Amino acid sequence: MPTESDYKDQLLQLIQLQHMDSQIYDLLTTSETFPVKIQEMDALHECNRTALNKAEDDLKKLQVFKNQRETDMQAKEDLIKKHQSQLFQIKNNKEYSALQAEIHGVKADISLIEEDIINLFDKIDAAKKAVDAEKKAFEDEKKKFDAEKALIMDEEKKINDELQAVQAKRVEVSGSIDKTLLGQYERILRSRGRTALAVVVDDERCGECRMLLRPQIINEAKLKRALVLCENCSRMLYTEQ
Ligand SMILES: [Zn+2]
Q: Measured in angstroms, how far is the CA atom of residue 3 from the centroid of ligand 1?
């Protein structure tokens, strides 16, 4: 531990160190929020894809259905051809009119299918337009998202650069502090988070935990000859005078 005469100077170094450690703590806290923000943005952006996926699915279903109807029509047309060639082989009138009636029925089916197919063409056109609109909306959103994301990433880089600079300065300052004192300071910092030092406020309270301090403790802190801890939060006390 430093001698009594050195302690005052060491305390000044600790105050400088504390200033940096609070900065580091705040910068780290801010820095940790960036990956979360970016993750949330990505998730939100994926949600926007749902509408596009649905429009694409709708279009695909209509196309499959149209293909089916076209296959159905082809089968019916083949059937008519088959029946028509059968007509020439039939000698019996009754059978002839029965087959003709069947051909007539199949032709009626075909015109229904044709109507279906025409409707499906219209629906497919509309579905294609819907896909294009959703695609455009998705891409516009993506541009916005990418711009926002770039801003966040710039901000993240700025914070991380600042963090590195403070950390480098901290190494310098901590090098001039007595190892035992520094060890004790760092233990308190680890357990308390943001601050290991506490200034005496209103000449009666710990500036961090706000507990009233005994006059003897305050006097010792004012002397700045040796380490004085808050009896409540265990932080290193100092006075501003
Ligand atoms: Zn305290």
A: 24
